[in-house]
Amino acid sequence: MKASWRRVGFAIAAAIAVGTVVTMVALGRVQTAPPQPDTAEKVMTAASTASRAPASPLQLPASTVAGYATPVSHALLAERAKAVDLRQFALDAMKRPAEGGLFHAFMAATHCSGDLAERKRKVDGAIRNAVQQRGTVDLAQLAAAERLARQCSSFDPDEAEELAWSIRSRDDKQDPLWAAFNAPPRRKPREDLLTALEAGDPFWLQISIHLDAAMLRHSRTHLTKGIWFDGKVYGPDLESLRLLTIGQRLGQCGASASCPMDDVILQACAEGFFCAKDRQEFMRRSLGLTDLTESERAEALSIADRFSSALQRRDVNVFLKPD
């Protein structure tokens, strides 16, 4: 049972990370050079120098957008955005189930029970690569790497997994987000999707099976007939489906649905892709890294705008083809 739960935890962590630099199906990857013995001292020197220098503050954008109803978890969302120690945040959140605390404690524990070693390897490799190529590391990149490292530094992965497991075993109706998270699909896409949109919580909305599965559930033959979105069918050719995926990820990020508390933005910065001061810059620069043509980029941006607007207006008709 625990083995299957570990896979569930990793799957959720992967789902959250999928927004990194939009989606990796569209982007090239930074090639990090293997560790070199003579670079270790340079890395430590760069980090030491950076720690003494005035760090450029990471300008983190607001965690909500106009148009969403204020979620019951609005206070926890603000605390999560500032949280340096996710272990302490999770323990505190569990005491506030009426505010969505169980759900947010679960998400924090799941984040820290994921493949932290792999994430750290990527960040360390990016820093080594920067030192080898430029002899220095951008302060913003170091700051992002430090913040990511500190988030789970007091949270042992096994302890985090145990905490997530204990929360997963609870059936607490006091927590509206947790109750909604555990509710089985009612096989009524319109009602399920409306529930997801009305929750207003970016974490819940992002991992909600209702949003990502609504179009697929309504288009079970998407591989042969494509996916319906806002009056148009995308697919079944892979390029068209890829365009929809990119637009969807951009739209979610812009509506605070796929960049929860900016972990995705921080990860992109720490891994050396680019550092963005807000979601708008993140979206613009992400799209610039794709190999789309100008007309395809315009279409992706159009999809993103319509996707974001539909999320804010809670318009289920954009996502579901009329019966």
Keywords:
2 strands; 323 residues; disordered N terminus; two-stranded antiparallel sheet; mainly alpha; 2% strand; 17 helices
Roughly how many Å apart are the termini? 40 Å
**Series of secondary-structure elements, N-terminal to C-terminal:** HHHHHHHHHHHHHEEHHHH
Radius of gyration: 20 Å
Biggest pleated-sheet summary: 2 strands, antiparallel
Number of strands: 2
Q: Runs with pLDDT <50, length 5+?
A: 1-68
Strand order of the largest sheet: 1-2
Give the overall pLDDT as a whole number.
Answer: 73
Taken together, the total number of domains comes to 1
Q: What global shape is seen?
A: flat
- Based on secondary structure, the structural category is mainly alpha
> What percent of the residues sit in helical stretches (DSSP H or I)?
55-70%
Report the total helices. Answer: 17
Content of β-strand: under 5%
SSE arrangement:
Elements: H1 2-17, H2 40-52, H3 74-82, H4 86-93, H5 101-112, H6 116-134, H7 139-151, H8 157-168, H9 176-182, H10 189-199, H11 202-207, H12 209-218, H13 222-225, E1 227-229, E2 232-234, H14 238-254, H15 263-270, H16 279-288, H17 294-313
Helix pairs in contact: 4-5, 5-8, 7-15, 10-12, 14-16, 14-17
Task: Please summarize what this structure is.
The chain is mainly alpha-helical and 323 residues long. Helices cover 60% and strands 2% of the residues.
